[in-house]
Write the structure tokens for this entry.
Amino acid sequence: MSRFSQFGNDLYSGKRVFDIVGRRKVWYAVTAVLILLSLAGLVGRGLNFGIEFRGGSELRVSQVQDMQGYEGRAGAIVEELSPGSTTTVTRIGDDTVRIQTGELESAQAETARAQLAEEFDVEVADVASSLVGPSWGETVTQRAAIALAVFLALVTVVLTLYFSTWKMAAAAMVALVHDVLFTIGVYALLGIEVSPASVIGFLTILGYSIYDTIVVFDKVRENTEHAADTKRQTFAEAANTAVNQTFVRSINTSIVALLPVGVILLVGITLIGPGTLVDLAWALFIGIAVGTFSSIFIATPLLVDMRSGELEIRKQDAQVTKRRQRALARSGRGESAVPELEPEQDLADGEDDLVPAGRRTATAPTPGTASPATGVSVPGRQLHPYAQRGPRNQPKRKNRS
């Protein structure tokens, strides 16, 4: 068995535990720093919108044999025809140069085609020119915003119904907003061009992030319900156990998803050049990575904070604390603790009475010492098994008179 597999087994079985929920203030601080960096990028540099959003002219020179210094050569020609416009020159594949600039008149576009053909020693027919209006990009943005609103509304309703609490849905929504905001901030900080494909990528990472969060929350619900029944763990401890048990699974899923996206991104940047494939890969790579972080370190700790004030949760935590104090007191008196105790009934003070799980051998108390109500063994003589269950369950004696 590999070390990573053993590591995952240890986390699932509880042999090794990371106090993720207990250190939630640290993760909140990390999240705050990431959000501040994202906002700084958005406010300071802003997003680098592609030509589909800002509008302009695009020229493509194909069959280029000499690519040396292509940026300066092409940029000088276009900037002379359209001074003051923002011009972007990129290489696509092995023999194509793409130039994006402000809107050119028909005569200017034809002049640019001729000069570019002469500069790169190609035919004029190999230089394509197109005019892109900003209305198409605006339409994509509006429809993406509508799709985002519908997605968030449906996810909120589904999570609320599935988990029977709106707080889980709220925690998941906070993680989603964090993922999108951070991804957009990275685009601003790195100057990555935002295209319609990038917008599609932003919507795609929402689905991945919510999927990973639901898997973690499902385990959280299972563990916390069991903890509420057995009173063995507090709500926060049960939630932390769930995060540890799904930790390796989340990492493995993310790695499997990131590997092909990373390969596509690498090939796109080094060989293919800018385009729809690269724009989509950028959004997916950043979003999947930050989505894994939010599912583990944000969603569940935030859920614990949101539910820690509920009456049932506070009562459960108090019962667990009192039970542990009672066990500690018994051990201090020299009494042996009986493992795997189960709650039998609620006492008047709200604390569960604990009895042995399964048949155990009871012993009589030492002279002058009362028998503990929990059934804990103390030094003394061995009793008949029926004696554990009370006098009414003991065998009836025959009347020999």
Remarks:
- The two ends are 71 Å apart (CA to CA).
